[in-house]
Amino acid sequence: MAKRIEVKDLDIYYDKFLAVQGVSMTIQPRSVTALIGPSGCGKSTFLRTLNRMHELVPNARVDGKIFMDDDDLYGAAVDPVNVRRQIGMVFQRPNPFPTMSIYDNVAAGLKLNNKRLRKAEMDEVVERALSAANLWEEVKDRLPKPGSGLSGGQQQRLCIARAIAVQPDVLLMDEPCSALDPISTQAIEDLMLELKEKYTIVIVTHNMQQAARVSDMTGFFNLRGVGQPGELVEIDETTKIFSTPSKKATEDYISGRFG
Amino acid sequence: MPTPTSQSSESDLYTPLTGAPLTAGQLPRGAAPLTLAIVALAALGLWQFADWSPAGAAVVGALVYTAVIYLWSRVVEGPRKATDRLVTAVVTCAFLLALLPLISVVVTVLSNGLARFDTEFFSYSMRGIVGEGGGAYHAIMGTLIITALAALISVPVGLLTAVYLVEYGRGKLAKAITFFVDVMTGIPSIVAGLFAYALFALIFGPGVRMGIMGAIALSVLMIPVVVRSTEEMLKLVPNELREASYALAVPKWRTIVKVVLPTALAGIATGVTLAIARVIGETAPLLITVGITSSDNFNPFDGRMATLSVFSYYEYVNPGVPPQFSLDRAWAAALTLIIIVMVLNLVARLISRLFAPKTRA
Prior knowledge:
Chain A: GO terms for molecular function: ATP binding; ATP hydrolysis activity; phosphate transmembrane transporter activity. Chain A: This is Phosphate ABC transporter ATP-binding protein. The complex is a heterodimer of chains A (259) and B (361). Chain A is α/β, with parallel strands linked by helices. Chain A is built from 10 helices and 10 strands. Chain A has one domain: Rossmann fold. Helix content of chain B is 71%, strand content 0%. In chain B, 35% of the residues are buried. Chains A and B meet through helix 2 and helix 6 of A and helix 9 and helix 10 of B.
């Protein structure tokens, strides 16, 4: 049930400070969309507006429209909690709940929302999520152990399992591999390629090779200048962005001439 | 061997400064603790045999030790290590001096209190007792009941205030609450007692005494401590955990109840236990609001109750004839109070260990 996301003329503010200006893009269902660009250009900020996490910062707000299929995410009657129910998120640093076991971490999305499932059903959800996150074989014998005892790569896959256990339509990933070694990164990239069969995935990354490896579409963000807001320079098919981008700034960035 | 060049104008940063020797003079191993032991023994001798006051001997001993270790090190090891030795000595001496009153209190209370620390003390009240015998059973129960009531009032109020301040509070109101909580931490306990007395005197008329009044006076003292410690603990919960929970579509209130509070539970429990320990020995507010009685009264809504601190106070100021029996009971009550506080502290440590988020598999 992956859904398409359509962003129209989005301006993102922190209080009075305009952080990102005029973003319009379409995110295709069942694909991986990568967002690249230099630090501080608003990629993560933009990503967090997609599931209304941005407004958790005091006085943060947005102008413009985001549609998921036909629903306006910023419509007046929309409850942000319901938006987040359909759009899951994985963060830069793995953040399993320290008071919970591996099992409870995966089940957290259901348990914390008081979904009453029978033990067998819950077991099945946990196993399915952990298998989908390629973690089941490594942790199946220690599910009652605390999640924070796992290695960094395992913790990040645990967080992915936690995010997909609630079966969202869209999965947002904010630099999910930046704190991981190449082997864990490989595991998570493989996972993304498997997950995109069913999910719409948006990933922010600093690693251009990673964007080239996993994504179907790539969007390049940049600052207009020092002290100016960030903007979406262009978004196109990944092969095109990395071979014949239409903007000079994109070519400079991906060829390593700056940034 | 080239001499070490000083960093004068001609030395540029691209040339390494070579030639500084790698070895330096050192005091013999164990020099510092040995010196300290010798000086401490000398101070002990001054106190015991030369008629010095113990405090004077301790302070002079600390000064002599600091001076000796600094000068010795300065001659043998050079100024950098001497400074290190000086600061270490100052810190050690300050620690030992701070420890002395504590040891003195424990020794005094133990030696005076053990005389009546018997089963009779824990099973009898003072009903009909004038001289020998009697006990503090009524006072122990009174202290436990009143403190438990105070905790029952303070913990929910304090906890919810802290949750408001950390999770919801914005702007002037939150700042004002924080400020007044800080002010409240500093109010003298007698003021809390007068507040509770005045409040109840308005309703029940003057001269009213009830256990619940004492509990309210104590909770006035306890709430700010609970708020402050809980607030600090909630602030320590990483924001990432809240965001992780929000991203799973968990509403804010449920995030607080199921993620934030459990993560901070160990610290909160410790803070609450220490707040209880802080008020359990209060005397002045209980003297005004609860008074004293010599019989069992375990109903906090009906008349005077006995508490350990007030019991100890009255046994000391109104001894019978001969006074020794009363004084022994007073010291035994003080000892009991210290033991209760110690047990509470141990419980706090146990709780923080049990509830602490586990990281090891």
